[in-house]
Amino acid sequence: WKWLGALLLIALVLWGEHRGLASLLITKPTSKDIEWAFYAFGGVMAWSWIASLVAPQEENSGVATITGMSIAGVLLLIVTAAVTEEVAFRGYLQERLGSLLHSRWIGAAVSLMIFIAPHVVFFGPSWLFHQLVGTLALVAFTLIRRNLVATMLLHFLINAPILIPTVLAKL
């Protein structure tokens, strides 16, 4: 469903709005975009490590659902989330709201709130402490680098560590 939604949004942009993919920030990333995605990932992982020392993430049904999937399934889930959520929340919603409200920052804040809600429902309130920094990194990265493909890479990297407990559960 997420892929269908992302494709429909892209179709809306191309044929309904008569705008190009660049209006969704979908352009070829520069080497600096990729470099900064890895720097941002390092910062997010540092926070994740500190957060796990301060208050280890509690078991929750969301994580249990994901780690119960096959490794291939989790990998597909990570790719799906990285691409489709970025198209919907940063490329479309954040950009269009920013344009309508004449402020990229307000557009980003509103999009952030909408993005957070289903994640908290699925993973529980402790998700905010452990993952909000990563989500803020995605928003800030998009605002600063203005490249959705690089943001998708960052999103993929941030979500990739869920493969660790998934693999361990299969051993």
Structure description:
The protein is mainly alpha-helical and 171 residues long. It has eight helices and no strands. It has helices at 2-16, 31-54, 61-67, 71-100, 104-123, 126-145, 148-159, 163-170. It is globular and about 50 Å long. The mean pLDDT is 95.
Count every beta strand, where a strand is a DSSP E run of 2 or more residues.
0
Percent range for helical residues? over 70%
Distance between the first and last residues' Cα: 31 Å
Mean pLDDT: 95
User: Number of helical runs?
Assistant: 8
Structural class computed from helices and strand pairing: mainly alpha
Radius of gyration: 16 Å
State the low-pLDDT regions, or none. Answer: none
Using the alpha-carbon principal axes, give the shape.
globular
The biggest beta sheet, please? Answer: none
**Sequence of secondary-structure elements:** HHHHHHHH
Portion of residues in beta strands equals under 5%
